[in-house]
């Protein structure tokens, strides 16, 4: 028993070392991902229900690792965050998304906003306002075509500082939305103090709206509240026409989800925009 115990320990220890090694090597690889052209921006269309057309696209980043293949953001964003690589990587993502949107507009495609996810570390970086201003200036994208997605977790930070940052971004003319709305453990108090323009209702609230009247009631109430605060509402992760119909009945403004499109690479997104399709 003692022997096998020792063996178990050894086995466990080896695994642990392997995991740590993998983490470290991923972090090391991530350090070079930008210069090696391994990070790719995908875009997911956002459809306005009243017009049936694309009004925006959300940038979702993929890492094409030379040995491991595509690594999802759920795996590499946390590594980027704890290593603080998220600041330079996030800056590159912001720049690339703005530059791409301007290029689409210059090519005569319909003007849409590009939504970019902003990690809390990027938001808390003292240079974030200058960074965004500089990127807009450098790419020539008009500010109303950039939307920044932040999560409710910012509401749990130093509120006065957060408001100053949000006001600075708002003054640039960019839009700010609350991502994954309803999933953070924060009070709703921030809604009245923050200069934001949109709530994105998380997929978890929408999965069962067709079969569960309570979920429907919650989503309906969120939309009514948002509208009375002059906020627009995007429903995320919508997969069925039944969900679309219910969201339409609740006056939801925009929908993003596999029902219309998965996140797609740049050239496919350009083709979609060129189609000017009405859904
Ligand atoms: P998120 O911002 O909430 O993005 C929505 C996620 O839901 C995306 O996953 C998207 O592909 C997925 N999704 C969209 N529609 C559907 C649907 O109909 N059904 C299902 N099952 N899923 C759907 P993805 O691309 O894996 O990204 C996961 C998360 O990683 C994002 O969640 C975001 O928090 C983070 N992320 C992605 N790109 C970036 C980035 O460039 N910067 C930062 N800071 N975070 C990012
Ligand atoms: Ca998002
Ligand atoms: Ca989300
Ligand atoms: Ca999410």
Strand content: 15-25%
The average pLDDT value, as a whole number, equals 91
- End-to-end Cα distance: 66 Å
Q: What order do the strands of the largest sheet run in, or round the barrel if closed?
A: 1-2-4-5-6-7-8-9
Q: Any low-confidence stretches, pLDDT <50, length ≥5? A: 1-13
Domain EAL: 23-277
Organism: Paenibacillus qinlingensis
Protein name: Diguanylate cyclase (GGDEF)-like protein
Layout of helices and strands:
Blueprint: H1 2-31, E1 39-48, E2 54-65, E3 69-71, H2 73-82, H3 86-106, E4 113-117, H4 120-124, H5 128-139, E5 146-151, H6 159-172, E6 175-181, H7 190-193, E7 198-201, H8 203-206, H9 213-228, E8 232-236, H10 241-249, E9 254-256, H11 266-275
Parallel strand pairs: 2-4, 4-5, 5-6, 6-7, 7-8, 8-9
Antiparallel strand pairs: 1-2, 1-9, 2-3
The protein binds ligand C2E and calcium ion (3 copies).
The site of ligand C2E has 22 residues, from strand 2, helix 2, helix 3 and strand 6.
């Amino acid at each position: 028993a003692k022997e096998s115990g020792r063996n178990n320990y050894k086995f466990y220890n080896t695994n642990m070392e392997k995991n740590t090694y993998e983490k470290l090597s991923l972090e090391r690889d991530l350090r070079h991902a930008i210069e090696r052209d391994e990070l790719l921006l995908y875009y997911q269309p956002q459809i306005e229900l009243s017009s049936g057309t694309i009004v925006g696209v959300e940038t979702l980043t993929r890492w094409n690792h030379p040995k491991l293949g595509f690594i999802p953001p759920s795996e590499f964003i946390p590594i980027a965050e704890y290593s603080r690589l998220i600041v330079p990587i996030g800056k590159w993502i912001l720049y690339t998304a703005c530059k791409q949107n301007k290029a689409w507009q210059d090519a005569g495609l319909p003007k849409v906003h590009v939504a970019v996810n902003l990690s809390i570390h990027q938001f808390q970086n003292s240079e974030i306002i200058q960074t965004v201003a500089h990127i807009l200036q450098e790419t020539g994208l008009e500010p109303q075509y950039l939307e920044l997605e932040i999560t409710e977790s910012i509401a749990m930070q130093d509120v006065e500082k957060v408001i100053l940052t949000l006001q600075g971004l708002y003054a640039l003319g960019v839009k700010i939305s609350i991502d994954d709305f309803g999933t953070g453990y924060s009070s709703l108090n921030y809604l009245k103090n923050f200069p934001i323009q949109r709530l994105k209702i998380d997929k978890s609230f929408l999965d069962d709206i067709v079969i569960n009247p309570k979920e429907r009631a919650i989503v309906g109430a969120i939309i009514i509240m948002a509208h009375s605060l002059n906020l627009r509402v995007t429903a995320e992760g919508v997969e069925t026409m039944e969900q679309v119909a219910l969201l339409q009945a609740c006056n939801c403004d925009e929908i993003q989800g596999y029902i219309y499109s998965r996140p797609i690479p740049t050239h496919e997104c350009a083709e979609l925009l060129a189609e000017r399709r009405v859904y």
